[in-house]
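Hello forum,

I keep getting stuck at the same step: I have a sequence, I want structure tokens, and every attempt I make locally crashes halfway through. Rather than fight my setup again tonight, could one of you with a working pipeline run this one for me? It's a single chain of 294 residues.
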Amino acid sequence: MASTLRVVQLNVGSLLEPDWVNRRVEIAAWLRELRPDVCCFQEVWADANNPPSVEWIVDETDELGWHWVFAGDALAPAMWPDPSLRFGSAVLSRWPIDEHTFHRLPVVSDGDRFASSVPWELFHVRTAGLDVFSTHLAAAPTQGLHRRLQVVEIDQLIKEARGDRDDLRFGTKREHMPHVLCGDFNAEPESDEIRFLASLAPIDGQTTFHQDAWRMAGDGPGHTQDWRTSPIAAEMNINRKRIDYVFVGDAFQRAGSAGRILSAQLAFHESRTGVIASDHHGLVVDITWPQRPS
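Reply #2:
Ran it on my machine without issues. Output:
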């Protein structure tokens, strides 16, 4: 594992879903087992009287040596009346956090009150020279128009953050590790949104390429919401689907095979402590990182 990056992705559902006090214990148990280098968690919250909801998990697994940061924005007053509440993402890393930027993602002006009430986000963290992005897109199956707009914005924001790190020069290997993009995309693999990110379809004349880790190295359907295995998903009567992803930037012509996806597996999908971690299952992905710091 000396030149491998292990990434964990999970929508923790710490605000709106039940039994967080027990589910956070389950998440901590999984982190001890997986021992990831970087974690991206969505649906994290904090307010004037409460620290970010994953702080307990960080403290409980302090032997893993986390550096971490949270960012979010307010829900609409009609959804959550406390103006101090912030709802967003947290990123945990084994290395210090060098910088971080929170972006609120756009929605289509179509009168959808729910879509416009939630601060859908892209959260960028740079740690040990690695660019990590955590995202959460518009949720309902019918909100594909919002997600189409959001993935185009995500792609543009990533390109701006990366600068010249992904420039390809003939006859020269690219030295920089590609970015990692994790999140709850609320979109299935066949959707325009995911096909756009994976270079399988244009949106509004634009194209891009981010490696879908499950498509590259996973086995089976990879459902990350499954009513058969998550009691919370079953209670909400959610259909089985793959909507959570780890994407990695283009690995073409990277020195030392940087960005090669070695494995992608489900995580948090089975109980370690008697409860299931979330209404979502998570992912654990191993990626070649030849410049990995000690």
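The radius of gyration is 18 Å. If your local run keeps crashing, start a new thread with the error log.
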